[in-house]
Fold each of these.
Amino acid sequence: MVLTNSDPLVASTASGAVRGQLLNGVRSWRGIPYGAPPTGPLRFRAPQPPAPWDGVRDALHFGNAAPQHENKAVALPAGVTQSEDCLYLNVTAPATDGPGTGTGTGTGTGDLKPVMVWIHGGAYVAGSNAQPLFDGTHLVANGDVVFVALNYRLGALGFLDFSSFSTPELTFETNLGLRDILAGLTWVQQNIAAFGGDPGDVTLFGESAGGGCVTTLLTSPAAAGLFHRALAESAPATSVYGPERAARVAARVLEVAGAPPDAGGAEGRRDDEEGPRAVTPAELLTLPAEVLSQAAFELVAAVSADAPGTLAIGPVVDGDVVPVHPIEAYQAGSQLPLPLIIGTNRDEASLFRLMKSPLMPITQTSVHAMFEQIALERPELDVAALEPRIEGAYPHFPHHRTPSEVSRDAGFRMPSIWLAAAHSRVAPTRMYRFDHSTPALRLLGIGATHGAEIAYVFGNFEITKKDFSFRLGGRDAAHRLSAVIQHRWLAFARGHDAVGPGGEPWPLYDDATRSTLVFDHGETVVDDPDAAIRTAWGDTVVSFE
């Protein structure tokens, strides 16, 4: 449907009309429901359409964030509450409905604008589309696009697979967070024209876990036709797990959660039993969301400590939304053949090292444990020969920061390279590496850490008073690079082959040249950067079942 109301701040959707506001020179709608509250009997079920409403609904405030444990790295804005009722999205559009630059061949028209749909990161357990870092104002103002940011279920409620506990009376569905994103993309197809966006010209992009959702959904038949280009920043592309492993993790959650005081009392407990009993699957339907969030938080640390290099929570191969492991799909060429940009940051692991996070191995001992886990999960690999070969490619291993560099490459860089090489055989693929950092970040040993590129993509710098990034200068260089990166991302979304501000091409990635666009003080095309390290890893494709 198209916007017929004379008020440019009112848009008609399939569920009802919504009223936005003019903010910083763009039109903004916040907290639009794209799904019914996944609560009560809908907990652990696929999302359902939102209930329709009469009249015009104000869309002036952010919707609820998904339930999550407090996270120092992901601070929710003041006033944003957590709730299971979290299936909300934001739309940002140019101030006027002038002619767009859409090139889509789907249901849209040439008068509609390209759409960019953002999937936030947060290790599948944290984050929100309300984070100031993800404000799409600059992308919309500079690129004449329509920007959409989704919330989706996280943690135990979104990415733990309890389907092994399903019975004829009790159903637990899989990959709920991914199903939410698919529902959000379906909403875009049905409604975005009312906001001036072209449903036939949609770019799906995300970072970290959001990037992992992008690379996973590229292999999902359920996503066919819902987006037309993909952009994955620092995606943990191999962190997708099999159903047997998922069932073990789910059972562990039941133990970690324990029994809340008002969920059964002494029933089911022996007189001599000490400590909390395990939660029953049926109790998962009524267990408070904060209890599940706490259990998921504890499980993330425990699983990553027990099996370094793995995540407790993430997408699962379910034979449905994710038919096979994504890496297998890419190797077989069965993924959606859509244009792709994919890349990583030079110092991905520095943030994890600084925060002493268990999510990535950062010591020689934990790196060795990671290889032991690989040997356990992938017995067909000669890990005894692989480990010394890989470690030998890092000149200073195990000193300095090289253990975290091995971890960085196992978790982010090599999976992106493996995926890019495979995807380049079926669709145009481009790879980047983000190396830029400010003098203060270099001095602190943080460099181009995980997530550092996001501020440059969105053009949002110094969004908190405690940001020390520019204490020693570097602001002008950052803004210049941001303009370049934004131009590349926006050109890609408009179907212009991701050209630079002066029309500079971005060579395609392939097995022969492995051309990579390196962003630092400027941008440079480098063929096969870090070739020795890539060769040492080879085509191992480290993934866990």
Note: The longest helix spans residues 402-423.
Amino acid sequence: MRLAGAVTIVPEVSDDPLLAELKERLAEVDDLGGVGGLLAWDQQTCMPPAGAATRAAQRATVHKLAHELFTHDRVGELLEQLVPLEESLPYDSDEAGMLRVTRRAYDKARRVPASLAAEMSHASSEAHEAWVEAREASDFARFRPHLERGLELRQRYIDCFPPSDNPYDILLDDYEEGMTAAEATAVFDELKTTLVPLIDAVVDRADSVDDSFLHGSFPRERQEWLVEEVLQTFGFDRSSWRLDTVVHPFALSLGPGDVRITTRFHEDYLPTALFGAMHECGHGLYEAGIDPRLARTGIGHATSLSIHESQSRMWENLVGRSRPFWQRFFPDLARSFPDTFGGMDAEAFYRGINKVQPSLIRIEADEATYNLHIVLRFELEQDVTAGRLAVADLPEAWNQKMRDYLGIEVPDDAHGVLQDVHWSFGFGYFPTYSLGNVIAGQLWERIRVDIPDIDERIGRAELGELREWLREHIHQHGAKYTMRELLERVVGTGLDPQPYASYLKAKLTDIYGL
């Protein structure tokens, strides 16, 4: 018990030899993780296709070495010997955060044989190359054996852990600590109570919003100029960032001062590269905002995929699809593509990029129907993991859910079951996208209180205070706090879909005159 007015004495930990030894080991594990990340980035951006087999072996070796180093008996001994020190430290201290996060990760990793970890890495690398070829050919049969192999490996992974009512929970936990499929379903069901009738009401007025101008001729070099202008406003720094093109966009950080983001360009459809780059820049800002002191400590990374996605979805949608943003940037757009936008105003463009309509491609979906794309994948992943659905039957199951949820027909595998890269790496990631939307709504509600003139600032392209708010409240902490702890610290509640639902309802009511 702490007496009122008592002075809190924080023990000196910098000279503790056990903590120093643990930090040294964690630094080496992080270094190997960075090497693995660099290999993955190179594979997806510039590796010659013929190098795929060699790259799979390299990544598997690095992953195995990192796993063996992290799960070494000595790490467990150090964690046990450091319990008294951890208990004496303030919960918010970096060292206490490092110890509790490392202990949880160590306990999970110890359950998984290094050989299985290496197999999973090798299979994922091979599956990625198979997915690229299958998507290009729009032929699920080329990807199927790799997906079946990945599923078999993940069933072995699941078997490493105590039995769960839903085996999918073990996979989801890797991306969102402590989250279960039942909890995610409850959040999505609550969200759907607002979204489904809202989508129905908007679709009935679909003709009132025109987005035909988003399809046309948009030369890549002009798109690249516009993307760079927008990203620099967001916070892209050429001295420590780079932007590349890939089949499926992603972002990663190899450590302080090295953020890699990607996008892809379609010369007949403008939003793909523009909003894709915004999305990945949101991820990059999170990574760039982590306190450099946490580097190579085991907590110098994002705390969860839901928090990560909240950042990307916020910058892409709540900032990048806002009316103030395009009041500022529409003149630049019109100068880039005068034939298309020379006679248009910013309001028409704003309405067009926010049009709600069922569509085939998730990453190009509007804010409202996007969540139905996630629910579709979430349900399919659970069915496959539980053995209720065979991998061979995924294309037809996918197509049927697209009819049921979005009312559209899937023309081919490339526009359906093969459109996302994620299943090359396993299951469990997709729910975090919609959870990220929910969290973004909660954070934005708080941001509006703390930065009451946020709209005016966006309209002037003055985004520094927003970046600083996110860095202070979210980014700098790395993995020190769980998603639930961060929400409690910042907004005072757990996951709550209502702020996001209210944001969407207000936005679409304004656009469609509901």
Note: DSSP finds 22 helices and three strands in the chain.
Amino acid sequence: MTLTIADAQLKDEAGRTRILRGVNLGGSSKVPFSPDGASYRREGFFEHRAVSFVGRPFPLAEADEHFQRLAAWGLTCLRLIVTWEALEHAGPGQHDEEYLDYLVEIVRRAGEHGMLVFIDAHQDVWSRFSGGDGAPGWTFEAAGLDITKFQQTGAAIVHATHGDPFPRMIWPTNGWKLAAATMYTLFFGGDDFAPGLRVDGEPIQSYLQRHYLGALRRLAARLRVFPHVIGYDVFNEPMPGLIGNRALHRPASPLTQGERPSPFEMLLLGAGHPQAVEQWVWELRPRRVGRRTVNPGAVSAWLPGRECVWRSEGVWDLAADGQPRLLRPQHFCYVRGRFVQFTRDYWRPFCNRFAAAIREEHPGALIFVQPEYGGEGPAWGPDDAPGIVYAPHWYDLVTLFVKRYLPGLALDLTRRGPVFGIGAVERHFAQELRAHVRYGAEQMGGAPTLIGEFGIPFDLNNRTAFSSGNFGLAERAMARSFRALDDALASGTLWNYTADNSNARGDLWNDEDLSLYSADQRRDPGDINSGGRALRAAVRPYAMATAGTPLRMHFDRARRLFTYRFRHDPAVSAPSEIFVPRLQYPEGCQVSVSDGDFELDMQAQRLRYRHSDGVDEHEIRIRPA
């Protein structure tokens, strides 16, 4: 299926408006399959060149089972997780051909099951070795960083080296620590901020971007033969690193949890100068609990014979008394006398560079562009690449961070304050998602919006559901997120589906557990739904294809009443299609329409509706038989 863009909507070959619902596949694709790279494992962690991601998201022998399950759940759009490390772990320019062959077969089988696929070049806080996933270990070596010293120097908090218990949702703080912040700065802005750093004579920014784009181009060249591969996500959750920072003496991280060094402190820590760093805890509100001396052993995070790149660039140095001094406090915020802004000056140009590179291999591919982590997307103009989909992430943040379902509490990041009351929270969620849709249409050149990630943790309330088998709280939390998506008439891909999720270790990465499926909940191998979690909330009717403009979509979960209204487009002759899940209507359903006629196929879980031409707006209602 080919998708195009018109009127800030995704359109199929028949001209129908498509609302896509799917999943991120999968959560454990962030770590190697062999040897087992689950983030809690320390053994072999630093042997980063001798790994394989063949088997992520699942072994080929299991592929049809998982695709059948997802299709039965109506989740037919896959944001397929692929990391740079998976493609090029062995060394610069050494692409893993076995993994590429494996991905081609996974994608081919997905198409056989009616799936649409877009590739997500996934990363979190740069790499596994800086507490997340994404880039190969050799990228640190190119910059002169020693991945074995990040724990001692406070350069990153990493599950494998920290050990258990791993602090809840601590990993995002790595984006403002030395390892990740340095690599983001070099990758996006090395030409401006570290012009003296070269790898084999090549500027570091060019070196890193050339290899990143080369790996993704290699994959695009293999996948372009599949019409159901609709596009490529540029770079998951981009972060500016140090770019734009004008207060190097003050903590930059908005996340008040664990160690919170200022940028200057983190530079000194990495260079072997112990620092007394702020310590924070976060429960329902942040609280500073004092300071702690970090790196008391004066260990360097830089490889032997290499010094801190930011010292080499004159940002700081040792004074005559041997004490560190900040020499260029505005190094990262002014370039040639002009104040720089990450999204405008670095992220947007890179997105255009990515689009051009991918389309040389896969002409016509859609390019999925995210905003800067925690910010807004780039302002897109007529000189920027066409065929853009705006793909922000959205989460119920209180549920995600606290791992409790509190129906009357949410966080408003715009006002930087709480939202109280069940009704107010639901309205706020819908408003946030509508704002994303509006931003894509108005600020990104008429781009349609697909929420690239949303979801809820299943280990709520200290994992009580795993022993009781009652996922009622998770179901309510999940339903609230899907209801907001419906209210905004937005496409979205749920985070996530992890084939090897377990109650003990979740998605095998940083103790997260957001998978819609777990083998530990699978009781009946003959039941396609067995193993699913909160399915009554996630598997719901929705308008897959509309012969016109969607106006309103609502699913009353208690009554299982689905209502859909749209305005038809006279130029479209194909029927509108609604996903009607058997899980919600095991005894069948009743359908009423405002006009026209319909065909209900419960075996295929589809309602096909042909409207009359005598009226502009149409309504479809589905209820249990």
Note: DSSP finds 16 helices and 30 strands in the chain.
Amino acid sequence: MNNRNSKLNNRNYYLSDIALPEAEDIFFGECYILDVIKSPLSESLTLTESLGRVTADPVWASTSSPAYDSSAMDGVAVRSEDTIGASETNPLKLIIGSNAVWVDTGDPMPDNFNAVVMIENVIEENETSILITDPVAPLQHVRPLGEDIVATELILPERHTITPPDMAACAAAGLSQISVIGKPKVAIITTGDELVPLGTNVKSGDIIDSNSVLLKGLIAQWGGEPSTLGPIDDDYTKIINCVKSALDRFDIIIINAGSSAGRDDHTARVIAELGRVLVHGVAIRPGHPVVLGIAGNKPIVGLPGYPVSTALTAEIFIKPLITTSAGNGHQLIENQIPAIITRKVNSQMGEDEFLRVKLGKVGNKTVATPLQRGAGVIMSLVRSDGFVKIPRFSEGLDYGSQIMVNLNKTQQSIEDTIVCIGSHDMALDLISSRLKRIAPHITFASSHVGSLAGIRAIQNSEAHMAGSHLLDPDTGIYNMSYIERYLDHVPMKLVRLVGRIQGLIIPKGNPKNVTTLTDLVRPDVNFVNRQRGSGTRVLLDSQLKELNIPNENINGYHREEFSHLSVAATVQGGNADAGLGIMSAAKALDLDFIPVMDEHYDLIIPDEYYQSTLLQPMISLINSPDFRESVDALGGYDTQDMGKIIAEFNY
């Protein structure tokens, strides 16, 4: 039997799939009965240098995360066009090495392959051929370069107290040191062939071991003394030997990654070999494949490998162990507040979902904006003010419904948050950082959902301001007609932030020789677009109409990204030959740029907030010469009228 088939036959499967309350009762009940939670001697340990410290300067990402296109599933890499027509009743045959390549979660995507068929939809005929029972779309089950973090993106503003999610995000960007004092000794064993330690020069196929940084911070925050043993390869013998050693020296054992049912997932087998598996598989999202057990009369927990899953399952199953051992003085106070959800959220039936949200106080109500939901998106932890639990038998949350948010920030910090919803611009990142210098208590929170969505947020009293660059094709004037159409009941001001250059972002050296928008219809050119409702999308549609170019003639017209940096990252990663965006985004990722036209990017601010003490520091900031110089340095901007009131609307 070849090695591949041997690994398939040794695959692990979930031992259980039970509700969260039942899993907690089984695990913690067994821990208490066996008295496996003991208070070790108190001592201090400096783990790194920054936990609880305040940043002196803004922290910018030095590398994108992921740093390469990677498989999001175990399965086979394919070309999506080769899978058309596949079904359970009509499986398609593919040849290994020709139009199919075996991949595991986290593997780099092979050249010229653009999608992954999950292992569940693959039937092995023999060593050279397979059958697939499900078609896949381009980039399905693929994590593209920069999906989570884009190089040069703002990670943390200056004058910011560092939290564990902050540290994990900095680690993923190649920047992190933390300092902790703990009590119970906790072993963190990170596993994965693709993991490399901090400080490693990342190459294709490498993933920085940011989860160990995240877990160290959480454990220290809860009163534990964490130690990292790893990263360790996905090798059963190496992992079990490491766990055996850890059981002699630590009070709680964590194995991170390898908890699922893939061919290289060994956590459940290791725990079963050394002790007892109490639970394998809990009905929660994210974090479903968690493993809970006892070994050597000590708790041993297998946490899923994606960072958001890691954080959530650690919160549920590790935190109570540590806080109980450390005593009530180290318990963190749980705090809930009511809020209004600003978008409809669909959720899968049968699992409790924990949704991260960004909060702000707008008028008399607290609004909650859902953050990106991917289990691998570290920045959702950094940007999160709390989470809402969506019950397992609910289909989701309706727009405008009241929810209860579990806070990880203070109530006062929520009231001191400026909520900006609308179009993306890199100047907003600078505002977020520089504002901390002149008003440390104020947080600037921007949500990049497009200009029209920003106007709707103002219309529904869900934001203090909206960033917009909507062109009226009939008049050639930006934003004013849209304000008159949608916001004819609210006195407000239209404030110029920047003039900027929109154009085609293309790879360095322009290998496809793209020169104008008309080149987008060429069959060899792949395009990446902004989302429907964004000002950039409106601008593109206007230009295509003038050129009499049907959008269906453009390869990639319906492929959407939600920021200029994400468009640039898609081009940088080789998944598109061109995208429409701003010059500063192209410059940030060292890409070429072809100007198309100048435009105006403005802030729409209701009068009641423009005059408020909350927004006045920001208004002063954008009118300062120093800030204008910083924006000019990004490239592609005209700041001559920055801060100027372009129009006032009085109703």
Note: The first strand starts at residue 59 and ends at 60.
